[in-house]
Amino acid sequence: EVNLVESGGSIVRPGGSLRLSCAASGFMFGDHAMSWVRRAPGKGLEWVSGVNWSGGGSGYADSVKGRFTISRDNAKNSLYLQMNSLRVEDTAFYYCARHVDCSGGGCYSIYGHVDLWGQGTLVTVSP
Amino acid sequence: DIQMTQSPSSLSASVGDRVTITCQASRDIRKYLNWYQQKPGKAPKLLIHDVSNLETGVPSRFSGSGSGTHFTFTITTLHPEDIATYYCQHYDSLPLTFGGGTKVEIK
């Protein structure tokens, strides 16, 4: 079955750290760019970070730049998000997201539409 | 960064009504625009990619149009199961950004 399963969400104090993981199954993980997208309570979706197929290239939203680090291990079919210096405003459901397969070429961007989402993991930052 | 302005932020319509949502980009994003649906407690779901391409399995009552900076998403006949929040999202460049969302409710 094609699936993404997030884990690692928890309650943490401001200034703390947390590492999220996303386990992929049922598809060629290394053929897809991957992203983390979050939704804070009462707010809309926000792209957090993305990484290319090899893990050698990545991007971040301004709101997390310098605090969060995305990485992947294709041998383990896993995506990670290391979150440091957490703030109250980082409280959200964090979703693992798979971008459409562009491994064959012909795509404008490796960060095309997200065609597979995980169910999300909740991160709560509270004093 | 490209800003995506979506309107309205919420709407109430009757079953069978036509529903239209607009999305304005702060600069030309050509055709690199997607639409997602999110129901309460669920993960987002892709409905339309690259302005007007319906994702496999998505009902044909959903459609999209536009180019450049102005885009439109339409539900031709609102069904009860369409109650959700809808988001536009560009992928012209990083960072990717979403519109603020449109919450669709049944009148």
Taking pLDDT < 50 over at least 5 consecutive residues as the criterion, the unreliable ranges of chain B are none
Mean pLDDT of chain B: 97
Gyration radius from CA atoms of chain B, angstroms? 13 Å
The helix/strand order of chain B is EEEEEEEEEEE
Number of strands of chain B: 11
Q: How large is the radius of gyration of chain A?
A: 14 Å
Give the quaternary arrangement of the chains: heterodimer
Q: What's the order of the H and E elements of chain A?
A: EEEEEEEEEEE
- Sheet-strand content of chain A, in percent, reads over 45%
Biggest sheet layout of chain A: 7 strands, mixed
User: What is the number of E strands of chain A?
Assistant: 11
Helical amount of chain A: under 10%
Indicate the structural class of chain A.
mainly beta
Notes on the protein architecture:
- The complex is a heterodimer of chains A (127) and B (107).
- The model of chain A has no long low-confidence stretch (mean pLDDT 96).
- In chain A, 0% of the residues lie in helices and 47% in strands.
- Chain A has no helices and eleven strands.
- In chain A, strands 2, 4, 5, 6, 9, 10 and 11 form a seven-stranded mixed sheet that branches.
- With 127 residues, chain A is an all-beta fold.
- Chain B starts with a strand and ends with a strand.
- Helices cover 0% and strands 50% of the residues of chain B.
- Chain B is an all-beta fold and 107 residues long.
- Chain B contains no helices and eleven strands.
- The interface between A and B is medium-sized, with 25 and 27 residues.
